[in-house]
Amino acid sequence: MLKEILNISGKPGLYKLLSYGKNTIIVESLIDKKRMPAHAREKIISLGDVAIYTTGEDVPLSQVLESIYAKYEGKPIEMEKFTTPDDLHKFFVGVLPDYDEDRVYKTDIKKLISWYNVLVNAGFTSFAEKEEPAEEEKKEEA
């Protein structure tokens, strides 16, 4: 699911991948539903490829978003609550206790909260990738 959600550097919000063209892709804003082309020269990142640094193994963004969704019961987060870097730290420790404080910056946490709010406001209720049953399992069910 997050593989189709994109962050385009220099453009606000998040975008859903709709189709591919020659040296471009067609995306739709999750905020205002406007469609536009995104060119190959732009820095485009799929949220499915993003992971958060921890003191152990990196944690996929989908797991972090699921944790935030569970903690806040699927409601958007008020950014006004986080006026100091210490507030952001307390928030993120509550979501991902072993995050690497040296490599995860406060601006990264703000961006994560912003992405979460955009996704929740767009109607997302699950962030984990749904696994397809293996072909052998499908045949056994038939």
Q: How is this structure best described in words?
A:
With 142 residues, the chain is α+β, with helices and mostly antiparallel strands. It has four helices and seven strands. The chain has helices at 61-71, 85-95, 106-121, 135-141; strands spanning 5-8, 15-21, 24-29, 35-39, 44-46, 51-52, 59-60. The strands form two sheets. Strands 4-3-2-1-5 form a five-stranded antiparallel beta sheet, with no helix packed on it. It has a two-stranded antiparallel sheet with strand order 6-7. The radius of gyration is 17 Å and the shape is globular.
Global structural class: alpha+beta
The CATH class label of the largest domain is Mainly Alpha
Tally of structural domains: 2
What would the average pLDDT be, to the nearest integer? 88
Question: Per the principal axes of the C-alpha atoms, what is the gross shape?
Answer: globular
- Please mark out the parts with pLDDT under 50 across 5 or more consecutive residues, or reply none: 134-142
SS field, number of helical segments: 4
Radius of gyration: 17 Å
- Helical content (DSSP H or I, runs of 4+): 25-40%
Q: How many beta strands in the DSSP annotation?
A: 7
Give the N-to-C terminal Cα separation. Answer: 27 Å
Following the backbone from N to C, one meets helices and strands in this order, namely EEEEEEEHHHH
Spatial strand order of the main sheet: 4-3-2-1-5
CATH architecture label name of the largest domain: Orthogonal Bundle
CATH topology category name of the largest domain: Arc Repressor Mutant, subunit A
- Beta fraction: 15-25%
- Describe the largest sheet: 5 strands, antiparallel
